[in-house]
Design brief:
Layout (H helix, E strand, L loop, with lengths): L1 E3 L9 H6 L7 E6 L11 H10 L4 E6 L3 H11 L3 E5 L7 H10 L3 E6 L17 E5 L15 H13 L5 E5 L7 H7 L3 E4 L1 H4 L4 H13 L1
The structure holds D-xylitol-5-phosphate (DX5) and zinc ion.
Amino acid sequence: MIAPSILSADFARLAEEAAAVKGADWLHVDVMDAHFVPNLTLGLPIVKSLLKATDIPLDCHLMIEDPDRWAIGYAEAGAHNVTVHAEAIVGDPRAVARDLRAAGAKAGLSLKPGTPLDPWVEVLRDYDTLLIMSVEPGFGGQAFIPEVLDKVRAARRMVDTGHLKVVIEIDGGINDDTIDQAAEAGVDCFVAGSAVYGAADPSRAVAALRERAAQ
Ligand code: DX5
Ligand code: ZN
């Protein structure tokens, strides 16, 4: 799956930018609060508007503090997938997942590049998506950190041997040059911001990424 990130789109034309990525599986929406990460983007009101403006399922990536409190709103609004950061969860990570699912969303858990997978393996049984960050969260257009591929491989083994129904997603620095390594390591869903919206034809960029990942 390919999930273009609207972080690299024109925020004044979000409906058109969503329509510009034909064939995208999910539309990745980076919610940043200027506390969990040193950047501020958009929040629930804009997500609600975007939900009305596109049929592409929204993949909301919450880079915010206290997701225990705020994530549920995105699920209730109708986001397809709501991903919280493991590092930001205050209470019981299983309760967060349970609430998201009860509100009709898929529950996602994200790990920053330096966050190990091991402590989260058991918790992942309650989640639908594992979002592995391949850059430090906060900004688009950064260089892919190849060291995270070991974590992707470990996650792939864990999902396959444990027969978990978890989608392994990667986010950060994915482009024509890096996507094949990530695909080989076992990624199911690729987020790409600058590689899609920085291209002259974003729909073609989505198709090209998909082709490379399948090679
Ligand atoms: C970064 C965001 C990413 C970002 C990726 O914190 O989570 O989703 O949009 O942008 P690129 O693909 O340009 O690295
Ligand atoms: Zn993201």
